[in-house]
């Protein structure tokens, strides 16, 4: 089995680089990164990732908006998402009645172990149900 392709989109360059380094170090993932939410859609089309990690709050386009744009594209709509957030209250994220309901949210800073565990769970869910 080849490496799983993960797209990471977060406006905080240090977080992006740390996540990339730690995920690549596991040897299981090929990583592409973007630091602007507005780049998420074009990066997803070019890279065709197995999973996308998105920051919820970015200055140009937030993670929710970027995810909905990606899900609207037929060729990308089955890609699972993991959202990173500095917010503690999931109600404030307001995703209950949207296509994003059920997507996992991880609080920053996220441990590599927790992130890899979540990635594997989401990828296995996609395989079984998508």
Compile the SSE list and pairings.
Layout: E1 4-9, H1 13-25, E2 29-34, H2 40-47, E3 51-55, H3 63-71, E4 81-85, H4 90-93, E5 105-107, H5 112-129
Parallel strand pairs: 1-2, 1-3, 3-4, 4-5
Structural class: alpha/beta
Report the average pLDDT across residues. Answer: 88
Give, in spatial order, the strands making up the sheet with the most strands.
2-1-3-4-5
Q: Would you identify the CATH architecture?
A: 3-Layer(aba) Sandwich
CATH superfamily: Response regulator
Q: How many domain regions?
A: 1
Q: Assess the beta-strand content as a share of residues.
A: 15-25%
- Total number of strands: 5
Total number of helices: 5
Tell me the name of the CATH class.
Alpha Beta
Largest sheet: 5 strands, parallel
Ends apart, CA distance between termini: 18 Å
Main attributes of the structure:
single chain; 130 residues; alpha/beta; Rossmann fold; five-stranded parallel beta sheet; 5 helices; 40% helix; globular
